[in-house]
Design goal:
The complex is a heterodimer of chains A (368) and B (92). Chain A has 368 residues and is mainly beta. Chain A is 1% helix and 40% strand. Chain A is built from one helix and 27 strands. In chain A, a hairpin with a 3-residue loop joins strand 5 and strand 6. The longest helix of chain A is centred in the middle third of the chain and has 4 residues. The N terminus of chain A is likely disordered. Chain B has one domain: Beta-grasp domain (Ubiquitin-like (UB roll)), CATH 3.10.20. Chain B has a five-stranded mixed β-sheet with strand order 2-1-5-3-4, covered by helices on one side. In chain B, strand 3 and strand 4 form a beta hairpin. The longest helix of chain B has 11 residues. The model of chain B has no long low-confidence stretch (mean pLDDT 95). Classes of the chains: A mainly beta (368), B alpha+beta (92). At the A-B interface, loops of A face helix 2 of B.
């Protein structure tokens, strides 16, 4: 079990990315009262936030996108209070690639044994890596040149690489997910990538189980059991026990298997959280009830968590990176909605409170 | 001599200036923007993407006319021309 160093002393820092900037919410370990700061980068979209404590760092990364001036990555060395940005946009395609960066969707610190490595997933779909703490970035050519790439189709949010799952035990193995291309895995450090979508359905395709083309929304795992993956699909909930070689349906007792967000319990490799949505057309919480669903048995069954959450008139949407967990001994679970609300639980999801309201549409929530 | 007027948002990437005077020869808007990039690469990054295209929600005017309705980046820039870069009316 890994205990992260909270950027807020012994408390919790919530990094909240919205369509109009980033906010930082802080609380002590009781997680009852919160103070909000922001907006940082007012008016800019913040799809990805990440906190890096490797090698004693206290560095926070924010992927910001100006509607006018492009996308970049900014950093903070003081827990998100002040930020600096680079002169030039550091994540960029080669001039002759024919591609132009639209958005950074995910920033992931590297493994413990590569403390200066960072990875980011972007739109148009590509994986970038940095070996110098984010000073410079290069695209992972093996994925950029993949033979499937010309046939990848954008999902509703664009053709984005939004999920990066690192094998903590094997530097050569990384799994990524792209909407709408599906899951790909490399076992040779990024040189070659193989589609790993066996068993994941693509409801919107003539062939419901193609080699690739699935609209995978999120994949999570527990570092103590990295080969076991959980996946929230565009219709479908799945588990893999073999690093994505095969997938089994685990939509057992949920009101809908459509959704975006998925979060692993930080200390229990059998416990996962999701927020089901009614359909891909409506994309709001079923029956206008805001419910988080939790499995404690790896998907054999799911239970609704609703204590403290509105159970009528709640037409809410929780996006793929807007569900998170802190790492305290009794972990807190948090999520943000497109209507600008943040909810939190300090008891693993058993009960909830509204932390704040009135934010711009929330697209990303990360706990540190 | 070509003058480039920048929006305030780009001033921090041009030594705090919002008016840059280019002394080097520039026969087209493309030449002028690349010259701007020589002095202020961060400002050019925010005006043009990696492909060398003006970002979709940025407007470039030459002597009061949008280059979208002239010859784009290949629009000739007579000596004394003024280039105005502005954020387009867009957003949500």
């Amino acid at each position: 079990m890994t205990q992260k160093t909270a950027a807020n002393g012994s408390g919790v820092m919530l990094l909240v990315g919205t369509m109009k900037g980033a906010f930082v919410l802080r609380s002590d370990a009781k997680r009852e009262k919160w103070k909000a700061e922001g907006p940082h980068f007012a008016g800019e979209t913040v799809y990805a936030l990440s906190h890096d404590t490797r090698n004693g760092r206290n560095r926070t990364y924010a992927a910001t996108q100006s509607f006018h001036w492009g996308a970049t990555i900014r950093t903070s060395e003081d827990g998100g209070r002040t930020w600096t940005g680079p002169e030039r946009h550091p994540v960029r395609f080669a001039e002759d690639s024919g591609e132009a960066l639209k958005q950074v969707w995910q920033i992931v610190p590297g493994r413990a044994d590569e403390p200066d490595a960072l990875y980011c997933g972007v739109e148009p779909a590509a994986l970038f890596e940095s070996r110098d703490n984010g000073e410079t970035w290069t695209p992972v050519e093996g994925l950029l040149a993949h033979e499937h790439r010309p046939k990848w189709q954008p999902g509703g949010g664009g053709l984005c690489l939004h999920t990066i799952v690192l094998d903590p035990e094997n530097r050569d193995r990384t799994l990524i997910a792209i909407s709408a291309a599906g899951v790909y895995r490399t076992d040779d450090g990024g040189r070659t990538w193989t589609a790993r979508n066996n068993g994941i359905r693509a409801e919107f395709m003539p062939d419901k189980f193609p080699e690739f083309g699935q609209c995978v929304h999120k994949v999570v795992h527990h570092p103590a059991r990295p080969q076991r993956l959980f996946l929230q699909n565009h219709w479908g909930l799945y588990r893999s026990e073999d690093w994505g070689d095969s997938w089994q349906d685990i939509a057992n007792g949920v009101p809908s298997d459509f959704g975006f967000a998925m979060q692993m319990h930080p200390h229990d490799q059998n416990t996962v959280y999701i927020v089901p949505l009614q359909s891909d057309e409506f994309r709001c919480t079923p029956e206008a009830k805001l419910r988080v669903y939790r499995t404690k048995n790896s998907g054999a069954s799911w239970e609704a968590l609703s204590d403290g959450l509105p159970q009528s008139g709640a037409y809410e949407t929780v996006l793929r990176d807007a569900l998170t967990a802190d790492s305290l001994p009794v972990p807190g679970i948090y999520f943000g909605t497109r209507s600008g609300k943040i909810y939190g639980s300090s008891d693993e999801g058993d009960s909830w409170q509204e932390i704040t309201d009135g934010l711009p549409p929330v697209v990303c929530v990360k706990a540190a | 001599m070509i003058t480039i007027e920048l929006p305030r948002a780009l001033g921090p990437y041009a030594d705090g200036r919002t008016r840059v005077v280019l002394e080097e020869p520039c026969t087209t808007v493309s030449d002028a923007l690349r010259a701007l990039g020589g002095h202020s690469p961060g400002a050019l990054d925010r005006v043009m993407d990696e492909r060398g295209q003006v970002r979709p929600h940025v407007n470039v005017f030459l002597n009061g006319e949008s280059i979208r309705f002239l010859s784009g980046l290949e629009t000739p820039t007579p000596d004394g021309s003024s280039i105005l870069i502005v954020a387009a009316v867009s957003g949500g």
